[in-house]
Design a protein that fits this description.
By secondary structure, this protein is α/β, with parallel strands linked by helices. It has helices at about 30-40, 55-60, 75-85, 110-115, 185-190, 195-200, 205-210, 230-240, and strands at about 5-10, 25, 30, 45-50, 65-70, 95-100, 125-130, 145-150, 155-160, 175-185, 215-220. The strands form 2 sheets. Strands 5-4-1-6-10-7-11-9-8 form a 9-stranded mixed beta sheet, with helices on both faces. A two-stranded antiparallel sheet has the order 2-3.
């Protein structure tokens, strides 16, 4: 059986919401909410890989583990790769789940779904998607779509990721959720690759893996967690996570 570690990259320098890992949500920093959701999945140890000592302090104060990475990294994948090398130099963990640090409403059960495709030895990376139900999301370039072919129950083999409406014609569209479960060797290969042409054009780093011939499978889940990128998103997160709201996801 695979041994799983969950890594959460977090940085203070987001342009639209500076300092967002420490944004207050009912008296708790947002990054701590994300860490708690990851812990609730009960898949393995959870490590926050941060670019700022204040994030490390917040996680440690909550009882968690955190690693202070180099400040400059091209992507969250690069940040977790550095943290993994320090956390598990012996190679005890062979599956890494990369959870974005701005998903405070993440359903822990979704994390469990993310590792399912890795039972297939042909799959290098696994991710999540959900059917688009809001008409305005179909042509929103901020809503990334996954185009895939059926590979099992509620599972697709990803053929492409795009900000455009795809595929064309009648039928459902699927909203990609930016959470990845990597085999350790796949993560190491991925971060060693240079950015690919389609990755640079679409501004989607997962296309680097597809262009290199790596296989990505996506599990279909029932909802999309709220990604906090703006002050408006932060207010929505506060409403969703309000005490006694009964809501944990979008």
């Amino acid at each position: 059986m695979s041994r799983i570690a969950i890594l959460i990259p977090a940085r203070m320098t987001a342009t639209r919401l500076p300092g967002k890992p420490l944004a207050d949500i009912h008296g708790v920093p947002m990054i701590v909410h994300v860490w708690r959701r990851a812990m609730e999945a009960e898949l393995g140890p959870v490590l926050v890989a941060a670019d700022d000592a204040r994030i490390v302090t917040a996680i440690q104060a909550a009882g968690g583990a955190a690693f202070l990475s180099q400040r400059e990294h091209a992507s969250g994948s690069d940040r977790i790769a550095e943290a993994l090398g320090a956390f598990d130099a012996q190679g005890n963990y062979d599956v890494m789940i990369n959870v974005q640090g701005d998903l405070p409403t993440l359903d822990p059960l979704a994390l469990r779904s993310a590792v399912v495709p890795l039972a297939d030895s042909h799959v290098d990376i696994a991710t999540l998607c959900a059917q688009i139900t809001r008409p305005e999301e179909r042509d929103d370039p901020n809503v990334v779509k996954v185009v895939g072919s059926a590979a099992g129950e509620r599972r697709f083999r990803a053929l492409y990721f795009t900000r455009a409406i795809a595929p064309w014609g009648e039928g459902p569209l699927y909203h990609h959720i930016g959470l990845y479960a990597y085999r350790r060797a796949a993560l190491q290969r991925f971060v060693a690759l240079p950015p690919s042409p389609l990755e640079k054009r679409e501004k989607l780093e997962q296309l680097r893996a597809l262009e290199a011939g790596m296989r990505i499978d996506a599990m279909v889940v029932d909802g999309v967690p709220l990604g906090v990128d703006t002050p408006h998103d932060l207010e929505r997160a506060r409403a969703l996570l309000a005490p006694h709201s009964g809501k944990t996801k979008q």
